């Protein structure tokens, strides 16, 4: 019975006969279900997911209400970043083996995870500058600038600078992983090798370029993509791969832009906790281009 169907004498908090029968029905329903109840000898939901461990990592260092939000959004973002790393690495292993269609599945997952990362800003933006200042001093020099997972995503995608290894020197394992990614081909390098394997002419300076450097546009790469984009029927798998990479870069830009906007509305032009100029540094990063020729090809078609 809905509120509007109640008689004038009914009170919203009083139970009607219908309500009781509905309650009884749901109780019966639950007892009839053979849901497992004894977890003395098997893993429960919380055991399997190690929820105690997960929650133990949520440890605000002040009494500020919004520090919980700040920590939760960072934790969730780190989990998505780890997933993105796994998916990128798996897709790159397939690309290195000459496979073009299977990596699309993993890259699609990357794109969806990026959407979740970008949506997280909407929750964080409910925090006011004054809320933030209540706990800002408590985390000292800690900053997302030191996020190993984020840096690994950037390295895998090709935005690489050896100096960015610096903040990880105190963690040899993390440093080694990042360093290995820095010296290995990026997802774009692997894609260009596939173009060459399909007979599209690419010079040695493209195929054997120094992987430690960020991508620099090359006319031969542009020509190769022009061939693919002018005749997608012949090169459908490469065309689809290129468009998927573009989706990844598109989403990466959205994340960066929303981060910058959130930072500006929270700390204005204050310096970052990581020691950079803050909004100025992040604004410069908006100019980063991961797959230059995939954008340029549109102008030249
Ligand atoms: C109100 C919340 C936030 C503020 C005020 C903020 C502020 C900043 C600032 C100023 C920087 C520049 C580096 C520095 O610290 O000097 C930065 C970098 C960064 N932040 Fe945030 N941030 C916030 C939330 C987040 C969240 C939720 C994440 C999620 C992981 C994140 C990830 C990063 C990353 C990965 C960088 C490095 C970007 C790069 O090097 O291009 N930030 N942040």
UniProtKB/TrEMBL annotation:
Keywords tagged on the record: Dioxygenase, Heme, Iron, Metal-binding, Oxidoreductase, Tryptophan catabolism
Molecular function GO terms recorded: heme binding; L-tryptophan 2,3-dioxygenase activity; metal ion binding
Pathway: Amino-acid degradation; L-tryptophan degradation via kynurenine pathway; L-kynurenine from L-tryptophan: step 1/2
Gene3D superfamilies given in the database record: 1.20.58.480
Names of the cofactor(s): heme
Known partners and oligomeric status: Homotetramer.
General function of this protein: Heme-dependent dioxygenase that catalyzes the oxidative cleavage of the L-tryptophan (L-Trp) pyrrole ring and converts L-tryptophan to N-formyl-L-kynurenine. Catalyzes the oxidative cleavage of the indole moiety.
Record's protein name: Tryptophan 2,3-dioxygenase
């Amino acid at each position: 019975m809905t509120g509007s169907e109640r008689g004038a004498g009914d009170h919203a908090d009083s139970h009607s006969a219908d309500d009781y029968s509905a309650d009884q029905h749901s109780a019966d329903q639950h007892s009839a279900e053979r849901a497992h109840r004894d977890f003395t000898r098997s893993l429960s939901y919380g055991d399997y997911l190690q929820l105690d461990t997960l929650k133990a990592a949520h440890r605000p260092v002040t009494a500020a209400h919004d520090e919980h939000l700040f920590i939760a959004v960072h934790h969730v973002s780190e989990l998505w970043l780890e997933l993105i790393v796994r998916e990128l690495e798996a897709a790159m292993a397939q690309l290195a083996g000459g496979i073009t269609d299977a990596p699309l599945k993993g890259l699609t997952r990357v794109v969806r995870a990026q959407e979740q990362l970008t949506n997280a800003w909407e929750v964080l933006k409910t925090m006011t500058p004054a809320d933030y200042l209540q706990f800002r001093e408590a985390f000292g020099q800690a900053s997302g600038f030191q996020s190993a997972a984020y840096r690994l995503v950037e390295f895998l995608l090709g935005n690489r600078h050896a100096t960015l290894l610096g903040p990880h020197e105190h963690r040899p394992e993390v440093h080694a992983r990042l360093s290995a990614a820095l010296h290995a081909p990026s997802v774009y390098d692997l894609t260009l090798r596939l173009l060459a394997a399909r007979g599209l002419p690419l010079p040695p300076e493209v195929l054997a370029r120094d992987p430690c450097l960020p991508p620099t546009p090359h006319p031969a790469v542009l020509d190769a993509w022009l061939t693919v984009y002018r005749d997608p029927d012949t090169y459908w798998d490469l065309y689809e791969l290129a468009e998927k990479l573009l989706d990844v870069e598109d989403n990466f830009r959205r994340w960066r832009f929303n981060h910058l906007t959130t930072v500006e509305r929270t700390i204005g032009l204050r310096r970052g906790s990581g020691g950079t100029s803050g909004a100025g540094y992040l604004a410069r990063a908006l100019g980063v281009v991961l797959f230059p020729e995939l954008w340029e090809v549109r102008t030249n078609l």
